[in-house]
Amino acid sequence: MKKNLFNKDTNALFEAILELKNIDECRAFFQDLCTYQELDAMAQRLHVAKMLYTHHVFTDIVAETGASTATISRVNRSIKNGEEGYKAVFERLGIHEKE
To answer: Three-state DSSP class for 7?
Structure first.
């Protein structure tokens, strides 16, 4: 059985993140919270998502990010069938989907 991701602990984490005021606070918090590998993996997924969102092909994404095709496929599923979290962030950052 899959464990419920959304519980009091994850909600507390999301609330804590929303309290961060700037990139320096964010950097410090995530440096304390995550290992280098965890932070690097999340940053890589965001990079992959940005490239997928702007319609880059898998081979270009692998070459630029070093991500595995499994990671790229997983991120692609999230973009196509997820909760539109990537879309919300990209729109707020001024990154627009290319046709």
So the answer is: coil
pTM: 0.89
Q: Please report, for residues 32, 41, 46, 68, 70, the alpha-carbon distance to residue 90 in angstroms, rounded to integers and kept in the order given.
A: 25, 18, 10, 22, 22
Question: Is the Cβ–Cβ distance between 20 and 29 less than 8 Å?
Answer: yes
Q: Report which of 54, 56, 31 is spatially closest to residue 43, judged by C-alpha positions.
A: 31
Could you read off the pLDDT of 32-50 as tens digits, one per residue? 999 999 999 999 999 999 9
Query: Cβ(33)–Cβ(25) under 8 Å?
Result: no
